[in-house]
Design goal:
The chain has about 375 residues and is of the alpha+beta class. It has helices at about 5-15, 25-35, 105-125, 150-160, 210-225, 270-285, 305-320, 335-340, 365-380; strands spanning about 40-50, 50-60, 65-75, 95, 100, 130-140, 165-170, 180, 185, 185-195, 200, 240-245, 255, 255-265, 290-300, 300, 325, 345, 360. Bound molecules: zinc ion (ZN). Zinc ion binds near residues 73, 107, 141 and 170.
Length: about 375
């Protein structure tokens, strides 16, 4: 008789108000559910200057054989305006077959679904099972993601822990369970481009250098250029100017500097480094002095269709009768860190209500997702 009910575990996790960076008991709730199954649990607390300390959990069952890892996060985004909610976001009420609450879809429901799947799988396989199953759960996915998955992976590497395949339980389905899995994501980087001029009187432009004019020329060049036309699996890369800031209140002064914010979402034809190089070459051709600051949120990654995607597709199909589309759309996720360690695919619940008021997940979806995860384990560990 299984002990973990994915629905009540989802509810217990939602009842921990684990808004990043607070854990609020969420990881202990999960640990209490899986430790009795024989998972060796490591609570990993990481810190870095200027960021809050973060709790993480790495739990592994087995010490050898092939290693299947489920990755996810127990932290959630803030509720937003409580008046917009029709329920208490941390009470986890079930209404009309839906579990309501912050984190129901993103992604406490998926964590509970996997924990229950692992229990059923392990009980069925019994003592003869010689593979490894792990859960890598962070409390820092919705936040800066500095003291989370990336550091757990470093810690694992230092201990010689290797994983052979990873599923991330992000809510990947757009409308109904089984319509989409993510085999990659675009990379994202932010740039602050500052055109440098010389301040002066507008009536004496020959004695000044107008950085606004320079910035406009630079942005015209960058936004007019084509980064690529997309690939078989990716949309075209996109460069968007997000803001232009001069902050000049005077009508008779040429300012000294003008800054633009730029975000680039890029596919696997580029890296952040190659894009910075590309930009510098174009700016050199435009001419003029500038400062360029870049911060990289994540590189593009891609797990080519193969053994792992076949496991995902056939497992989904066996439970809900739909073949998921293999997509690379959407924002970044912690899969960007895992891709350096193992093939990684994201599959979880339906994304429609994530980060919104009245976030919810269907009870039937959580149960079906649990069956899908169990099918993935079966296929992965069946020689
Ligand atoms: Zn998420």
């Amino acid at each position: 008789m299984p002990d973990i009910d994915p629905i009540s575990l989802t509810q217990n996790l939602i009842r921990c108000p684990s808004v990043t960076p607070d854990d609020a008991g969420a990881l202990d709730t999960l640990r209490a559910a899986i430790e009795p199954l024989g998972f060796a649990c490591h609570r990993l607390r990481f810190s870095a200057e200027g960021t809050p300390d973060i709790d993480n959990l790495y739990a592994r069952h087995g010490s050898g054989g092939r290693h299947f890892c489920f990755a996810g996060h127990t932290d959630v985004v803030p509720t937003g305006d409580l008046k917009g909610w029709t329920v208490d976001p941390f009470k986890a009420e079930i209404i009309d077959g839906q579990v309501y609450g912050r984190g129901a879809a993103d992604m406490k429901g998926a964590i509970a679904a996997f924990a229950a799947a692992a229990e059923r799988f392990l009980k069925r396989r019994g003592r003869g099972f010689d593979g490894s199953i792990s859960l890598l759960i962070t409390g820092d996915e919705e936040g800066p993601a500095i003291n989370g998955t990336a550091k757990v992976l470093d810690w694992m590497k230092a201990r010689g822990e290797r994983i052979d395949a990873c599923i991330v339980g992000e809510p990947t389905n757009e409308r109904q369970l089984g319509d989409m899995a993510k085999i990659g994501r675009r990379g994202s980087m932010n740039i602050r481009l500052t055109a440098l001029g010389q301040q002066g009187h507008v009536a004496y432009p020959h004695l000044a250098q107008n950085p606004n004019h320079l910035l406009v020329r630079m942005l015209a060049d960058l936004t007019g250029a084509e980064l690529d036309r997309g690939t078989e699996h990716f949309q075209p890369s996109s460069l968007q100017v997000t803001t232009i800031d001069v902050g000049n209140p005077a009508t008779n002064v040429i300012p000294a500097r003008a800054t633009a914010g730029i975000n680039i979402r890029f596919n696997d034809r580029h890296t952040s480094a190659s894009l910075i190089e590309w930009m510098k070459q174009r700016l050199a051709a435009v001419g003029g002095r500038y400062d360029l600051e870049a911060s990289v949120s994540g590189e593009a990654f891609f797990t080519a269709p193969g053994a792992l995607s076949e496991i995902v597709v056939s497992s989904v199909e066996s439970v809900v009768g739909r073949k998921p589309q293999l997509s690379t759309t959407g924002g970044t996720s912690d899969a960007r860190f895992i891709r350096a360690h193992a093939p990684v695919i994201e599959f979880g619940l339906v994304s429609q209500t994530m980060h919104k008021v009245d976030e919810r997940a269907a009870v039937a979806d959580i149960n079906n997702l649990s069956a899908i995860y169990e099918a993935m384990l079966d296929r992965f560990f069946t020689p």
